[in-house]
## 1
Amino acid sequence: MATADLPTIEVSDLRRVYFDKKILGRGRETVALDGISFAVARGSVFGLLGPNGAGKTTTVRILTTLLTPTSGQARVLGLDVAQQARAIRPRIAFIFGGDRGLYGRLTGKENLRYFAALHQLNPREAKRRAELLLEQVGLDGRGDTLVEQYSRGMKQRLHLARGLLIDPDVLFLDEPTIGLDPVGARDLRRLVPDLAAQGKTVLLTTHYMFEADAICDRLAIINKGRLIAEGTPAEIKGSFGAGSVLDVVLRQPASELVAALEKIPGTEYVDVSAEGPYPKLTILAADAKLIQAQVESLVGTANLERISLREPTLEEAYLKLVR
Amino acid sequence: MANLAAQVYLSYKALFFWLNWPGVLGNIVARPMLNVAMFSLVGRFAGHPDAAQRYVLGMALYSIAEIVTGGVIQTFSRERASGTLPLLYCSPASRWWSYAARAGMHYPNGLIAFTLSVAFGAIFLGFDYSRTNWPLLIIAVLAVTLSSTGYALLIGDIALLYRNWTAIYSLSGSALLLLTGVLIPLSALPPPLQAVAQILPLTHGLEAFRAAFAGGDLAAVTDALAWELILAITYGLIGFASYRWIEETARRTGMIEAGI
Amino acid sequence: MATSMPPPPRAFHLASLAPNHTPPLLGLLYTIFGGYQQSAAEGARVRNLRWLQRLPMAVVWGWFAVHADPAVATYLTIGAFFAVVWFEAVFVMGFSLTDEAWQGMIDVEITSPSGLMAVLFGKGLATAADAARTGLMSAAIVAVMSGLAISIPQPLTFVASLLVALIALIATSFVFAPLIVVVGGAAGFYNAIRPFGIVFGGFLFPISRLPDALQPISWFVPAAWSMNAMILTIQDGPLPDILLRWAAALALSVVYLCLAWWCFRIVERRVLVTGSSLTS
C-alpha cells in the first residue's frame, strides 16, 4: 500500500523490446524503451512528451498492466506492475481516447453500464454511477443517445466518465485532446487539474506543448526510448541555459537567408513559419540579443517587417531536446 | 492482355486478401467436400433412394457457383469498403476489363472445389462414375462456370450499393441451392418457381451434367447447354450495364464513396 | 451525424462513489450478465438479416423431411434448430474476440477482474440466445413441411436432452473465440468449420450413418453424444444408455471449456507480453 510520502508511480530503469517474429530466420528487435526512470507524486499531474514512436504509449501500457516490461521495474501505488497486476487494476483507469474503445451502437449509459459490469459493480450501483458521471462530464441529457451519434468531444468525455466509474486513484490519459476541437480540448484541460485537486494522480501523454505547460506539475521528455529531460515545465524551459529567441517577420520570402543565419556563432537553430501573409523566422540562440544586430544586417531593412526578442517556449525547448 | 492479367491478379490479391492458406484449405478444399457429405448423408437418412446421385452431383456443381459467386461479390464489396471506388472512377482504365477481371482468379478455385467434391463422392460415399461421358461433363462444368460468373457479376453490382455483402451472397446463393434442382427436383417446386428456375444459372447446366454422368451424349443436351451459355452472356451484359449505371449515378449524385 | 455540443463539464465531486465490495463470484456473474446485455443490445440494433439467411437451408431440410417417417422427421426438426444455432453461434462467437479488438475494447476487457473469458462468455450466451430464435424459426419450417409428423415419447428426458445438447453446442462453439486468434489465419478455416459441425455433430443424421472411416472424428464432438442421446429419447430408448451419452457430452463440454480457458490464457499472454493488438 502506498503511503502519502511515497511516489504513486515509480519507474526504474524500465526497458521494453518488441520482437518481430519470423518463421524463417532471425526476427527483428525494436527497442521501445531503453532504461527510463522517473517518479510521480500523489495528487500531481505528470506529462510524458516525445515524438511519435518515442515510447510514450509503451510506458503507459506497461504502467496500466497491459504490457509486461522486458527488464527494469515499474510500481504503481507501491505495487509491481508485472507481479501484482490484479491488485493494481481495480485502482487505476486509462483513457486511450479516440473513436475506438466505445460501442457505437450502444447509448452512452449502456456503454458505462457495460464497463461497470467489467469491474464487477452491481447493476443498480452501475446505473447510479453512470447517471452521476454523465452529469459531471457534461453529458446529462445525452446518455440515451447512441454513441455513434456523438461528436469526438462527447466521446472523449464519455471515455473520461468510463475511466472514473471505479473512482480510480491513478488516471492515465494517452493523448486525451488529440483530434478534439478547441472548445472540447479546453474543457478537458480544465478537468485534469480538478481531478488532481481531489487527490487523483494523473499521468498524461501529449504532443501539445502548451497543454503540458499549462496543466502538468512535472514533465518528462522521451526520445527514442530514452528519457532526455525531466522536471517542472519551467525547469525544462530553462534546461538549455540562458537561451532566448528572436522572432523575425519578413516582407519577402528569403529561403537563402536560413543557411546564412545558421552560420552566425551562437545560433542553435532557425525555424521557418508564417505570420499572416509574411514569412517568419524563429531564431533560437544562446543569447539572441547578442546576434540581433547581425540578423538585422543580413535580412536588410527593406525586407524587415518586425523583429522581437523573447524567452523560449516549452515547444522550442522540446524541439531543441529531441532534434 | 498484360493489363488484363494484372487486373485479374491484383483484384484477387487486393480485394480477396483474407484467403490465406488456412482459408484455401478451409474454403476450397474442406467446405465443398463437407457440403457434399452433409447433404448426401441427410438425404440417405431421410430415406431418399437417389440421395447419393442427386446430392453428390448437385453439390459438386453447386460448389463452383458458390465459390465464383462468393469471390466475385466480395471483390465488389471490398472495393467499396476499402474506399478505392473513387480511384477507379477517376482512372482511364477500361471499365469492361475492371469488371470482368474480378472473376478470373476464382475459376481455378471453383474447379478445384468441384474436383475434390466429385472425388469425395467416389471415395467416401461409394459413388460410381463408370458410365460418365467425361467430355460432356467437362463442357457442362465450363458452361456452369461461365453462367455463375455472369450471375456473380450482376449480383456483385448490388454489393456496391448495399453494405451487407454476406446477406446478398447468402440470399443469391440460396436461390441457386433451392431453385435450380441442386437438391430439390424442379418438379417438386410450385409452377411459378419452376419458371424462375429456367432463368437462373445452373438449372440447364445441371441437366446436362446429370446426363453426362448417366452416359448421355452431347446431342441430347445441346439445348440445355445453349441456354446456360445464353444466360451467362445475358447476366454478364446486364451486370456490366448496371456497373456503368452505378458509376454514372454516383458521379451525378456525388455519392461515389457509397456507390450511389 | 454528430449532435450539437453539450454544455461544458462541471467540477468533479466523486465522493459519492462508494467503494465497490462485490464478492468475487457475484462480481463474475455481473460481468457475464454485462457481456450478455451488451451483446444482446448491440445485436438487436444490427440489421444484417442473418435470420433470413438461414431460412432457405431450413427449407432444404424441410424438403428432406417431407416423406420421412415420424422419427426421422422429428430428428430433422430438432436437428434444424441445433444446426442453425451451431451455424450462427460458431460464426459470431468465432469472430467475437477479433471484433472486440477491432473496436478497441480488448484493453479494457482484459483488465476486468473477472477475466476476458467471462466477458466473452456473456457475449457468447447472447449470441446463442439470438441464434436460438432463428433456430426455432427453422425448426418450425421443417415441422410444417413434414406435416407436423413429430413424436416425442419421453417429454422430460427430451427436454433434458435438449439442454445437454445446448450446453454441448455452446461449449464447442465458444472455443472458437480464442482459437481463431491463437491459430491466426482469421476467417480462413471458418467456412469449413460450420459444415464440419453439421456432419460430425450429428445434428441432422445420426453419426452411425457416417462412413466408418470418418466416425471416430465425431467421438470428440460433444454435440454428437448429445444428439445420440436425443435419438434414443425419440426412439424411447433405455434411460441408462441416454444417461451415459449425457455424461459423455457434458464431460467433453468441460474439456472444451478447459480448452477455451487455455486458449484465452494464450490470448492474454499475447496481448500482455508481445504487445499484440489481436487485429492482424
## 2
Amino acid sequence: MSLLAILVYVLAVILIVAAIFAVKQKDLLLAVIGTSAISVVLSIFFYLLQAPDVALTEAAIGVALSTIIFVITIKKTKRFEE
Amino acid sequence: MRKVTAVILLGLVGYYLFSYFLEIPFGENRSSVGDYYLENTVEQTGSVNTVTSIIVSYRGFDTLGEVTVLFLAATGLGAILFDKKGKKRRRQHASLIVRVSAHLIYPLIILLGAYVFIHGHLTPGGGFQGGAIIATGVLLMFMSYRSFEVSHKFLTYLESLAGITFVVVGFAGLIWGSSFLENILPLGIPNQLFSAGVIPIIYIAVGLKVGAELTGLLDNLLKTIK
C-alpha cells in the first residue's frame, strides 16, 4: 500500500468519526467544531481528487465563514441540546 | 403492521431505483461537451484555466445571476439586522498572542485573496474563492481587535462599482461584439497575466464584490451579539 493510499484511509476515518461526533454531541459548540473538522478533511480530499478550486472554496467558506455564523447563532440562542 | 408495510415499500422503491441505476454506466464519458471545452478553451477565450473560462465566458450570464443572488442575500440580511443606533461590537478580550499574530497574518491573507482572484484565469480559484479568503482575513481582525472598523459606505461603494463593472463589460460585448459578455478585448498570449481579454476584469470585479459583501455580512452579524 502506498503512502497516499494510507493517507486517504486515515482521512476517511477522521471524516466519519468527525461526522458521527457532530451528530451525537449534545454541546452544540463542540458539534460545530466537528463540522468544521469535516470541512478541513473534505478540502484535503478535493485537493487529492484534483479539484483545487473547490478545495479553496471549502477551506474558506466551510471552515471559517459558516463556522462563525453557527457560533454567532449559538451565542444568541442556546448552547446545549435537550 | 405499519412498520412492516413501510419496510416492504421502501425495499420495493430501493430495488427498482437500484436496478435502474445499474443500467447507467459509471465513470464513462457520456457527453462530448467536456471534451469540446478542454480542446477549444485556450484558442477561443485565451484562458488556460478551463473552469474559469466556463464560469466567466461560456456561462458568464449564469455567473451574473449568481452574483445577484449573493447580493440579494446580503441585502436581505442587512435589512433584517438593521439598527438605527449604529451598534458597536462587544469588547472582546483577545489575548496578546492572538492580537499580534492576527496583525502579522492579516495582510498576507488579503494578499492571498487578491492573488487568487487576479490570477483567476491562470491558476485554480477565482473571484468567489478570492472574495471568501479576503472576508476570512477581515473576520480574523474583527475577532482580535475591537477598534478595527470597516466603513459600510466604502463597502457599499466598492460593491456597487464592482457590480456595475460586470454589467458594463457585458453590455460592451453587446455593443462592439455580437452578444452579451462577448470577449471584445485582444486575447493575448496564453499563460500571461495580461491575457484572456475581459475574463480578468470580470473576475477582479466578482472578487471585490464577494469580498465586500461577505465582510459587510460578517460585520452586521457580529454587531448583533450583546
